[in-house]
Amino acid sequence: MLSGWRLTLSKLFVIPQRYILGIMGFFAILNAYTMRVSLSVAITEMVQKHKTDFFDPNACVIEGIHNSTSIHTVIDYVYPWTVKQQGLILSSFYWGYVITHIPGGVIAEKFGGKYVLGLGILSTSVFTLLTPLVIYSTEGNWVWVVALRVLEGLGEGTTFPALNAILSKWVPLGERAKLGTLVYAGSQIGTVMANSISGTLIHATRSWASVFYFFGVMGCLWTLLWTILCYSDPDSHPFISDKERNYLEQELSASLKEKRKIPWTAIFTSVPVWALVCAQIGHDWGFFAMVTDLPTYLKEVLRFNVKENGLLSSIPYIVMWVVSLGSAYICDKLIANKCMTISFARKFFSTIGAVGPAVFLLIASYVGCDRNMAIVMFTLGMGCMGCFYCGMKVNVLDLTSHYAGTIMAIVNGIGALSGILVPYLIAAMTENHTLLQWRNVFWVTFVVLFVTNTVFVFFGSAEIQPFNSIYDEKKQVPVHRGAFNGVIIEEEEEESTEIR
After folding, report:
1. Is residue 78 exposed (0-12), middle (13-18) or buried (19+ Cβ within 10 Å)?
2. What is the spatial distance between Cα 447 and Cα 464, in angstroms, rounded to a whole number?
3. Nearest CA to 396 among 461, 335, 452, 341?
4. 165-206, pLDDT tens digit by residue?
5. Is the CB of residue 112 less than 8 Å from the CB of residue 162?
6. Least packed by Cβ within 10 Å: which of 124, 171, 183, 335?
7. Among residues of the chain, what percentage have pLDDT more than 90?
């Protein structure tokens, strides 16, 4: 029972605490993505224009724009980073990001996700704030920038595993879809904000450093609110109402059983798990290619200025967010009305999420210098990618109810390897930033999305996997056989309720 100040505080919150947690989780991912993505816009104004004797006969000549060079709008220092060095800077975040996925999930499940998530976002915020200082003090030494981005990735790698661990203790089954959608929509909205605000800030302040100061401060403010308002589970929350605590205890009692060992061997030998990993690699490949390199394409090929670049780069993600919400509703309806099986629905929507971007991104490279049509194609491609969320993204919950956090860490962590490879590969393939070089990039993306989706369609599953109950099986029950008046009688011993 609550008493004193805790009872008073509980009455001040009209919104249930699990919804407050959902809102704060949304802003956690939003902040994580703004700090991750903002460099993609900022770097277009941080780099000197390299002189080259290479002549591109297909270069876009846009009326009213001087075509020989991209004019910077900043008064800050700019640096002579090569295209490959820029690729390493953009990919280095994911070097650290991959490393802390599984450890972050394990620590969050053991000690609670509140401080794992909070410290992760805080560390990323601090390193984001320090970015201009490090660049200025080292006179733009790109190796130091890489090191700083690796540290940011280490902090942010705990975000999704820690959030999953927290949500599993706060969100009842009947609310999992809407609260999960709310939380994970932060990735698209964060990308939109990073692109649009970065371009506007740089244009207004004429300083690329303003981007890092703004998003770094926002991350620190979120950490403060998170520490005050949110807790790892209902039992540790000091001013949750008794009514909500009892409701969550009743609804989540089945998921709060004695902790199980993780069946690593069974998980790593599961074909549907590896099919899901393939689908995640395809999704991340296409998503990271757009997040990290679309601003560069818009500037170097289609000749947009930084303000236009930031705003136009955000449009595809707004559409992606809308489609993700709409397709989730449609998917649930189709399954509920038995128009599709769960397995078919997952594969159907994942196929739209893979084939759509593969086709439309490729078409964007063939419309050449038609800037309006290119933006339409990019927008349609990323819109289709929104179907991934009700397809392969929720497939983890189909495979297991006990180890969803662990498998999410595995799938997300391996998929994030694309973030290491894609920016550097694209940089290596587009040294002269020609339209034909970028077309080759989109062909590679097409092949990766098509192949990974094919693997998921043939080998993926929405069936609960055997490893889910590997430690739930009851012990063999000995049977005593006897006879009474010539009738065979079987008597079972009392069943053991121990979890093996």
Report:
1. middle
2. 30
3. 461
4. 788 788 776 666 667 777 877 888 898 888 888 888 888 888
5. no
6. 335
7. 28
What is the C-alpha to C-alpha distance for residues 418 and 90, in angstroms, rounded to an integer?
Answer: 12
Contact between 169 and 253 (Cβ < 8 Å): no
| DSSP single-letter state for residue 15 | S
Closest CA to 203 of 43, 296, 64, 310: 310
Burial level of 155, CB count in 10 A (0-12/13-18/19+)? buried
What type of residue sits at position 319? V
From 202, 220, 29, 221, select the one nearest 132 (Cα to Cα).
202
DSSP letters spanning 219-282? HHHHHHHHHHH--SSGGG-TT--HHHHHHHHHHHGGGSSSPPPP-HHHHHT-HHHHHHHHHHHH
Does this model's pTM top 0.70? My answer is yes
Show the tokens assigned to 302.
């289609």
From 58-67, 151-160, 290-299, 325-334, the region with the lowest mean pLDDT: 58-67
φ, ψ at 447 (rounded to 5°):
-65, -45
Tokens of 497: 């309720």
Three-state DSSP class for residue 480? strand
The candidate with the shortest Cα–Cα distance to 214, out of 200, 229, 224, is 200
Range 85-97 burial, b when 16+ CB lie within 10 A, else e: bbbbbbbbbbbbb
72 contact partners, CB below 8 Å, separation of at least 6: 45, 49, 78
Q: Say how far residue 320 (Cα) sits from the centre of its chain.
A: 13
Six-digit token string for 260: 């199980």
Whether the Cβ atoms of residue 143 and residue 115 lie closer than 8 Å to each other: no
Distance CA 446, CA 444 (A): 5
Spatial separation of the C-alpha atoms in residues 475 and 498, rounded to whole Å:
8
